[in-house]
Amino acid sequence: MFQSIMLRNGGSETVASIENIRDEQLPNGNVTVRIGHSCLNYKDALAITGRGSVVRAFPMVPGIDFAGTVEQSTDSRFTAGEMVLLNGFGVGEVHWGGLAGKARVDADWLIHLPPVMSDRQAMQIGTAGYTAMLCVMALERAGVTPNKGEVVVTGASGGVGGIATLLLSKLGYRVVAITGRPQEADYLHALGAKTILSRGEFEKPGKPLQKQRWAGAIDSLGGPALANVCAGMVEDGVVTACGLAQSIDFPATVAPFIFRGVHLIGINSVYRNLADRIVAWRRLADTIDFGALEAMTTTIPLTEVCSTASDIVDGKIRGRIVVDVDA
Ligand code: NDP
Questions:
Q1: pTM (predicted TM-score)
Q2: 288 Cα: distance to centroid of ligand 1 (angstroms)
Q3: Between β-strands 214-219 and 151-153, what pairing exists: parallel, antiparallel or unpaired?
Q4: pLDDT at res. 9
Q5: Which residue's C-alpha comes closest to atom 36 of ligand 1?
Q6: Which domains does the chain possess?
């Protein structure tokens, strides 16, 4: 028996509770993992609170990522005792996920944990940090080097935004952080942000073309914030769009794209190919400042997952939430 968060369909609402699960109840898969740590991402919070259409089949164990130890495997790529991690592939949405003591999954969805990282450190990074690294890699591939100019990061107090700020500053970029929480200025400077701007400036529709400010952007908000960021890019600037914490809408014009050659690159971490996953996690292992990561982490037990999920959707949580599934 092990403990798990379980989501059940309560008609007009999602009912979340902690349940005891037996191994036989786990879904099909060729690798069983004893989970060491999981974490809470924005998508997990939407699933648990029922405030977004994330869960496609009930009952569901939420948790889009986890790290732990292989307990059993019938796939030759993984053997018992090895440390592994998983991000995405519909886990926690259509297949039981990581907010539990164990998971059984398809071997194709797993990668080995980078040797320098513990399972807790992997979940301090989590899908938020892995996505931030995919954004950084996309900027690099598009030619945005530190000498090209500033890189703007939205949702900077959150998981993707915070780790993006940490990574970019470590890689030598000058980071401009946009936040709705000016009281987090010291925190954002400690992550490496050079300039902090108020989200309020970016929440209302703006002019199609604005003052040219940024060479690169990592946006996790969508909505008017993404439109205003696009409008403020320099010639040939590159915007990576990965989130919708403000809105799924994109109320923009084509002006930045056709008059300034701005590039807009979408980032989908969920079904990313294996090669990119391995590179992203190796780069994270090489680049991340684990001390700074610790300072942006709060660790909670399974019993605090539901209340914390509400706080995440309400934009009250700073940094990353790690879940110790055995605490
Ligand atoms: P977090 O909750 O950790 O951070 C989101 C941040 O956005 C908040 O800290 C806050 O930052 C800001 N924010 C929150 N609510 C609002 C709002 N209503 N309007 C404007 N800004 C708001 O989430 P994550 O960083 O984990 O995820 C961010 C987004 O990225 C989500 O939409 C998530 O689904 C998406 N995502 C997408 C992935 C992909 O594969 N494409 C993978 C991972 C995440 P502040 O207070 O500093 O402004």
A1: 0.97
A2: 20
A3: parallel
A4: 92
A5: 243
A6: 2-113+296-324 (3.90.180.10), 128-266 (3.40.50.720)
